[in-house]
Amino acid sequence: MQTEKRYTILKWITAGILIIHLVARLMFPTPSILIDLIGFNIVGLLSAVIAFNAPVISDRISAITIGMACSIWSMGSIFSTWNSFFELKIPESISDICYSLFYPLIFLGVIRSFTHKRSISALELLDSVIIAVGFTSVLAAFLLKPAMISFEGSAFSVFISILYPVGDIVLLAMVLVYVLLTPISIRSLLLAGGLLSFALSDLFFIWSSINSTYKFGSATDNGWILGLLLIAISLSYLSPESKFSDKISSYSATIALISSTCLLGVAALKPGYFPSFILLPGFITIALAFIRMSFALQEANTAATERALARTDELTGLPNRRRLISEIEEFVDKEGSLLLLDLDGFKPINDTYGHEIGDKVLKQVALRFDRALPHGAFLARLGGDEFGVLIEGLHESAIEIALALRATLSYPIHIDSNEILLGVSIGVAKNTGDADLLLRADTAMYKAKREGLGVCPL
User: Is there a contact between 62 and 238 (Cβ–Cβ < 8 Å)?
Assistant: First the structure.
C-alpha cells in the first residue's frame, strides 16, 4: 500500500514539475540552464522512473522498454542541451544515437502495451522486436538514397535525419491502429495521447528546423516530455481486451521480415547502393526470424504432444474416453455399433497381487483385444477395467466381434509367474443416429454383467 502511495505521489510530482516548467518557460522565454537543461530533462528522467516502477498489472517487457526509451531520449536531450550552454562540446553523434535508439525501444514497448496480458511468450517478444527493428530500419533505408540527393552530409547523418520523421510517422500510425483496435479506456487515452503529443512535437520541430523558424527553448518543446510522461503513466492502468491478436502481430513480423529480405536483396544486386551500416538491422531482423521459427516449431511440437497426451490413455497407449466420445460424435451418420467391455474379476487381482501386476494385466488385455479386432475398428480404454470399441458395418458382425473379444480371455494371462484368469461382459448397441448410443451400450453392458450373459446386444 505504501509503495502504491509513493508511486502515485511520484506521478503527481512529475506532472507538477512539467506544469511549473511550462509556466516558467512562458514567463522567462530566454533560455536558461535551470529551465532548459535541468527542469526540462528531469521530467523525462522521472517519466522513465515511473515506467520502470509501473505496477504488476503491466507487461514487464513493456514497462522496461518504455522506461529505457524515456531514459535514453532524456540522455540525448541532456547532451544536446548541454552544447547550447557550455563551450565543452559533446559530439552530436552521441545525442543522435540516443534519439535513434528511442524509436525501436518505444515501438517495442507500445506494441507490448497492446496486450492485456502480464506475461509475454518468446514468440510474442520476438515478433515485437522484429517489427520494431525491421520496419524502422527498412523504411529509413529505402528513403536514404533519394534523401541524399536533397540533403548534404555523410550517409550516416542523412540516415539519422530521415529516421526521425519516419519514426514519427510510424508512431502516428501506431496511434491510429491502437485507437481502432483497443476499446476506449484511461490507458488507451493516455497512451494514444502521449504518442500523439511526442510525434507531433517532433514533426513540428523538424518542419521548423527545415524552414529555419525553430527557436530553442520554445513552449512547443514541452510536447516531447508531455508525451513521455503520458506514455509512462498509462502503464499504471489495466489494458482492456484488445483486438490486437497474435495473428496481427505475426503478420506484421512477416511483413517486416520480407521487407528486410528485399533490402538485402537490393544490396546484393546493387553493391554500394546502401551504406554497409544500413544492412546490419536487416541481418538482425532475419536472424531473429530464424530464432522465432525454431521457437514456433518447438511450441508446435509441444502443443501436438500435449494434445495427443490429452486424448491417450497413459497406461495402455490406447485412445481414452475423451477421444472415444469425439469419435462417437463423428460416428452418428455411419452404420455400425458401439461395444462397451467391462472386465469380470479384475478387482481381486489388484487386491491380491497389487496394482503393479494389475497394470500389467490391463496392458495384456488391451493387446489381446487389439489383435482380435478387424482393421478399421476403434479401441479405447475408458478408465479402470472398462474398454470401448466402435465398429462400422452390420450389427450382426459387431455381435460376432464381441464374442471373439470375449474368447480372447478364455485362456490365462501369465504375469511374473502368476496365472491370472479373467472374464469380460460386453454390451453391444447399434448406432441409430441418436445421441444415446453411449448410454444404450452402457445399459447393455451392465445387463450382461448382472445377468451373466457375456454379450448383450441392444
Answer: no
| Residues 183, 263 within the same domain | yes
- Does the predicted model carry a pTM greater than 0.70? no
Residues 380 and 285 in one domain: no
Q: Is there a single domain that holds both residue 298 and residue 415?
A: no
Grid coordinates given for 105: 525501444
The number of beta carbons lying within 10 Å of the beta carbon of residue 324 is 25
Predicted confidence (pLDDT) per residue in 283-335, tens digit: 766 676 666 666 666 666 665 555 655 678 888 888 888 888 888 888 877 88
Query: Do 40 and 81 form a contact (C-beta atoms < 8 A)?
Result: yes
How does pLDDT run across 137-147, given as a tens digit for each residue? 666 665 555 54
Q: Is residue 315 part of a domain?
A: no
Q: Is 273 helix (H, G, I), strand (E, B) or coil?
A: coil
Among 384, 374, 375, CA closest to 316 = 384
3-state secondary structure of 417: coil
**Alpha-carbon distance 359 to 381, whole Å?**
13
The span from the CA of 99 to the CA of 261, in Å, is 26
CB distance 388 to 368 below 8 Å: no
Question: In terms of domains, do 298 and 347 share one?
Answer: no
- Other CB atoms within 10 A of residue 172 CB: 16
Place of cell 528531469: 42
